[in-house]
Amino acid sequence: MTDLIGGAGHVLDPAAIRAFVLARLAAEDLDGRRVCVIVPDATRSCPLPLLLSAVHEALHGRAAAVTVLIALGTHAPMSAAQLAKHLGGPYPGFEIRNHEWWLPETLVSLGRISADRVAELSEGRMKQPIDVTLNRAVVEHDVCLVVGPVFPHEVVGFSGGNKYFFPGIAGQEIIDFSHWLGALISSAEIIGTRGITPVRALIDEAAGMIPSRRLALCLVVKSGSGDLHAMSFGEPEAAWAACADVSARTHVEYLDAPVRRVLSIIPAKYDDMWTGAKGFYKVEPIVADGGQVIIYAPHITRISAMHPEIEQIGYHCRDYFVKQWDRFQDQHWGVLAHSTHLRGAGTWDPVGGERPRVTVTLATGIPEPVVRAANLDYLDPATIDLEALAADSFVVSQAGEVLFRLR
After folding, report:
1. Is 154 exposed, middle or buried (0-12, 13-18, 19+ CB in 10 A)?
2. pTM for this structure?
3. How far apart are CA 203 and CA 382, in angstroms?
C-alpha cells in the first residue's frame, strides 16, 4: 500500500508532514526491530531536520536500534559539522554514519545478476554478470527505511526510491556499471524519462536481493528550499512512482524553442564539478546545436574531490569512449559516465576527431590549465559582467534540480 499527500503546486504544512510520518511509522511492525534509515547527502534539497525529528519521535524507545546512513554514492564523506547542519538533531539513540564506499570491509555481496539477465534488463546494451554489493548495514538491520527526494535524474530518469540503495549505499562496481548503462543511453535521452528505464530496472532487480524489509518515505521538494510539495510512503517501488509522477509536473519546465546560450548558476551545495555538473545535465536539452552552456560557480575550485582521474581522462562525448573502448574499458566506468554527462552529445571518428554538439564553458575557481586540459572551455569569473551576460542568455539560477526541456 502506498499513501500520498500533497501534489504539484501544493506546499505541505510542517505539522501535516510530521503527522504523516508519525502515523505511517506507527502502523508498521517496527517494535524491537533494527532499523537503518537511509538519507541523502547535502547535494539534494531536503528538509531532513524536520523529517528525522519525526522519525526519531516515532522510533526512539520502540526500535531496538536505529542507524542513519548517509547515501553518498561515491561522493565525499560529510564531516561531523556538516552532518549536524544537514540532519539537525541531536537524535539520542540514533547512530549516524557516512556510507564508506571506499572501504571494502563495510560492504557485503548479496549475490550476482547473471549476464543473460543483465542483457534483458539493459535491453541488450550490456551483457556480463554483476556482483550486487551493498553497505553491510542492510544485512545487519531488519528494516531499511529510505527517506529522500525525487528529482529528474541524468542516469536513471527520476531519482529516489531504490536509487538510495544503488548507487546510494552500494559498492563501486555496481555503481560504475549502472552509471555506464545510463551513459550508453545518454543523459539527454534518459533524464526526466518517466516509468521504468533500463537503469531503474537494473536497480530494482538488485534491490530485490536485499534481505531486510524495504520501506520508503519519498518526497517532492520545492527546489532550493525545505518546502515539500508531496510525500508518499510504502514499498520503495510504489512510493517512488507516486512521487515521480508529481516531480514530472513540478521539476520540469518546457520551452517552445531552443536557446543559443544558457547561463547556469550553480548553488553552493555543489562544491565540485562532479556534483555541480548537474547544472549542465538539466539544461542540455534546450540548447541549440552549436550553442553554449556557461557553468558559473566561482566557489568551485576542483573538478572532483574523490575522482581525480577525471582530470586525466577529461570530458568527452559517449562515442569518444565507445569507439575507442580498448583504451578506456579498464577505467572506472562511473568516471567515464560522468565525463559523457558533462560533455553532452557529440560524435567521434578517428579521422575527424570529436565534434561536440554544444560548447561547455566553466566560469569557476578551477584553474584555467586544469579546465582546458579536461577538454572544456574556460572563462574567468572575475571578468564576467553577470548583468550584461544575463541579458543575452537564458539564465537558470539555483541550477541543478529543475530540468528544462523543449515541448
Report:
1. buried
2. 0.95
3. 43
